[in-house]
Task: inverse folding
């Protein structure tokens, strides 16, 4: 189970065979790695399911292997997104193995992970691609503009377009994920060539960017997760949604970043407590930072929940080119969140 979708196993994966199962998307949301927040956003789960399915089908059409097997319609069978009339909440997927990742404090034993993994396993990395550097991007704290041949000394208080997409790697299975330099990412990737992962991420990025451009969205950044099976790398988890990726429309963020920034403005004490807990956990070599956090988040006001719902659903309608949801136009939804 993840913080925003449930995980159903119908047939477990083995060392030599893929399993079968499904993601069941909920309306929960998570910001700042907190996990399930104290409220929910109606229709968010169906929005992510539909948008993710649409992107997986784009990838498959482009010859990129994935774990996607269709959305689950009213018949209970896995079908293409075009064959469902109502927004789906379940996505049928193939399953790989995810061995335990032993750790002592914040020291993780990836050798033990791969000893149990065989040739069928989740690659314990997130591969992040960036086309722009929005104001909320974590890249601003790790790099200077000059690192990307940008002609200014400090990051400006506006979105910055990158000359070329940038690929980064972060951990996937650690209690508190962290960005990695290329050598450590290569080590954690195990038997998989890090260059192959980078090339795959750039291909996915290009496909999502092209589709976003077709519907008037700007694709700013995103990530993929992958698994390794019988020598092949397949794209897993969910791709190109408003939770995994950042998009904008007429300069306004259209993604989970809207909710993140709202929390920063209205619950700064909680956001600071989360940051302090992560730093304390790092200093004390403790994996579970959340147990050290001295504050809990508060629920969102009703009008913010409503605005977030409309943003997710209107954005999905635009992206998939169908009125799957009863939602305002994307421009109307964007105008509402600009006033939050």
Result:
């Amino acid at each position: 189970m993840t913080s925003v979708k449930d995980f159903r196993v119908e047939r477990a994966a083995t060392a030599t065979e893929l399993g079968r199962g499904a993601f069941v998307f909920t309306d929960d949301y998570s910001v700042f790695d907190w996990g399930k927040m104290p409220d929910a956003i109606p229709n968010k789960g169906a929005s992510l399911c539909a948008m993710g399915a649409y992107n997986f089908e784009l990838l498959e059409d482009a010859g990129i292997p994935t774990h996607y097997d269709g959305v689950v319609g009213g018949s209970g069978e896995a079908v293409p997104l075009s064959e469902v009339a109502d927004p789906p909440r379940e996505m049928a997927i193939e399953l790989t193995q995810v061995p335990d990742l032993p750790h002592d404090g914040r020291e993780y034993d990836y050798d033990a992970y791969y000893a149990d993994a065989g040739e069928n396993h989740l690659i314990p990395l997130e591969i992040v691609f960036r086309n722009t550097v929005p104001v909320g991007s974590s890249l601003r704290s790790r790099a200077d503009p000059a690192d990307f041949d940008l002609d200014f000394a400090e990051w400006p208080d506006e979105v910055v377009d990158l000359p070329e997409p940038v690929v980064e790697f972060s951990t996937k299975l650690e209690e508190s994920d962290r960005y990695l330099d290329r050598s450590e990412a290569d080590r954690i990737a195990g038997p998989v060539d890090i260059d192959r992962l980078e090339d795959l991420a750039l291909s996915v990025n290009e496909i999502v960017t092209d589709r976003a451009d077709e519907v008037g969205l700007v694709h700013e950044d995103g990530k993929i997760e992958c698994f390794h099976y019988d020598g092949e790398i397949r794209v897993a988890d969910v791709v190109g949604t408003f939770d995994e990726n950042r998009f904008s429309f007429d300069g306004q963020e259209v993604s989970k970043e809207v909710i993140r920034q709202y929390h920063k403005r209205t619950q700064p004490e909680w956001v600071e407590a989360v940051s302090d807990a992560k730093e304390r956990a790092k200093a004390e070599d403790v994996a579970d930072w959340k147990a050290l956090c001295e504050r809990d988040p508060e629920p969102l006001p009703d009008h913010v929940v409503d605005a977030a719902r409309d943003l997710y659903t209107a954005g999905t309608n635009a992206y998939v080119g169908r009125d799957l949801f009863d939602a305002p136009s994307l421009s109307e939804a964007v105008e509402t969140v600009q006033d939050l």
Q: What stands out?
A: The domain at 5-338 is CATH 3.30.470.20 (D-amino Acid Aminotransferase; Chain A, domain 1). The longest helix spans residues 194-214. The chain has one domain: 5-338. The helical segments are 44-61, 110-117, 182-188, 194-214, 257-266, 268-284, 302-320, 330-338.
